[in-house]
Amino acid sequence: MSKRDYYEVLGISKSATKDEIKKAYRKLSKKYHPDINKEADAAEKFKEIKEAYEVLSDDQKKAHYDQFGHTDPNQGFGGGSDFGGFGFEDIFSSIFGGGGRRRDPNAPRQGADLQYTMTLSFEEAVFGKETTIEIPREETCETCKGSGAKPGTKVSTCSHCNGSGQLNVEQNTPFGRVVNRRACHHCNGTGKKIEEKCSTCRGEGKVTKRRKINVKIPAGVDDGQQLRVSAQGEPGVNGGPPGDLYVVFHVRSHEFFERDGDDIYCEMPLTFAQAALGDEVEVPTLHGKVKLKIPAGTQTGTKFRLKGKGVANVRGYGQGDQHIHVRVVTPTKLSDKQKQLLREFAELSGQGAVDEQHDSFFAKVKRAIKGE
Residues 6-24: pLDDT tens digits? Predict the structure, then answer.
């Protein structure tokens, strides 16, 4: 199945900015995260969204993708697909006596990377924490020490490939008779023959175990970001180094605060009296309560900024701010006395009396209604 265009996956144009790419990813990742969305294809969609974001959020990968798409030019003609049953690398190796890259099946190779999705509360993502996770991973079989053979028995050299792990296959092609090298199917490319397999790992040399790993989550991580835990992936092959573990974070939303980057946003309700007369109110922040002075005549939509009350940058580049949007709340239930006082206030103010700035605004509204 062919891959969808990454821009199509995130629902953005090719001219989208980094912020637009990030916002699209955050919206879609929350919508299709397997912990939230229980649809059958949610996990696949989440994986597709994450893959698209990892490419488009990286300038180098994005430039490569914009030029070549999903095709990797380093894989040879047609993205590494075979031509007539053999690869171009095999042709040039045969015609020009080698020179093409060949992978030694017995050479040390790094183990595979692992991925673990961790759900954090809003506060845990802001302040960080240290925790222990448990993951299933392959480890070297302790019974046979990774050989795959029953203890006390020997591992012999494969007689078909003489331990090389590869067989030469001759083919007739439009270019003539060429020799193509393939992994030996008798020993699965290992170059070794196991007569009696280890009963614990059944000849694989590895077993799956659940391993507890201590993870220190830095303060300031955001939804969709990941943490690399070095050397905690699958074990290496033939003495190679182990892979890494990537912990991907899913951050729950907060009932009062919203986050954008390192800044925190919230809405602060005020009564009509507080907005008109001014007041000093307590505002909740992630770092405790802060007193905020509300000037007299504050209007709905007025914004205040509390410097340094946001989130610490995960890479150590300072601290974000908290932004407060004021919303004047109109009461829905009034006592008779309150109604009478408001009527008196309206009479004293003059019906429709407003300040000069708002008088100009209402005048524009009236002219719009009359079509002037």
Answer: 998 999 988 889 888 988 9
